[in-house]
Amino acid sequence: MSDPLHTLVAACRHAEDIRKSRFLAQAAPVATPEQALAFVREVSAADATHNCWAYRIGQDYRFNDDGEPGGTAGRPILQAIEGQGFDRVVVVVTRWFGGIKLGAGGLARAYGGTAAECLRIADRVPIVAMARLGFACDFAELALLKARLRELGAEAVQEQFGADGVALEFELPAQRVAEAEQRIADLSRGRIAVRRMD
């Protein structure tokens, strides 16, 4: 089984001086491409020579060299994200040119290396696949069911109270679904039918 992917706990940054150019990597956890592009706009420095970036969110990814020679900035940043086992992450590496040209290989090492070091020192958290389940129960059963499901890492995301009971939807780690279904069946003596909502 492959190692689980990680995302960042919070935004982070790392700066390096490489042959008189200043490189600043800034990374953040993101859930959508729109959030990634908003972060790029937010942290890009107007006085910098280049603001190069990349993001990966599941199978969705993009990168941008921002005027550097093709393949020397955005692609190495994306490779740093993938190489460190990250997903749902955006990284912007800003460069202030210091007067010494680095060449294509030097640029790729500078952008990729600064991004990789930023991610290496950042706090990370594993990405856990989640599932959503739903069921209906009597009012009297609700508190016990919720308490026993919380023990499995489940969180209620929606409760609808009606005249004859409660319709509940909750999320929990996907690997705990069978255990949750069994627990609900045991507590209700098989009366409650659980359905997948995702």
Main beta sheet strand tally, sense and closure: 5 strands, antiparallel
Kindly report the spatial arrangement of strands forming the biggest sheet. 2-3-6-4-5
How many DSSP E strands? Answer: 11
Going by CATH, the architecture of the largest domain would be 2-Layer Sandwich
Alpha carbon gyration radius: 23 Å
Number of domains: 2
The low-pLDDT segments are none
Ends distance: 24 Å
Strand content bin: 35-45%
Coarse morphology: elongated
What is the name of the CATH superfamily of the largest domain? Impact, N-terminal domain
Run of helices and strands: EEEHEEHEHEEHEEHE
Structural class: alpha+beta
CATH class of the largest domain: Alpha Beta
The number of helices is: 5
Q: Look at the structure and give the mean pLDDT.
A: 91
Helix content: 25-40%
Look up the CATH topology of the largest domain: Ribosomal Protein S5, domain 2
Structural topology:
Elements: E1 6-8, E2 12-18, E3 21-29, H1 33-43, E4 50-57, E5 60-64, H2 74-83, E6 89-96, H3 103-121, E7 124-126, E8 130-137, H4 139-150, E9 155-162, E10 165-173, H5 177-187, E11 195-196
Antiparallel strand pairs: 1-7, 2-3, 3-6, 4-5, 4-6, 8-10, 8-11, 9-10
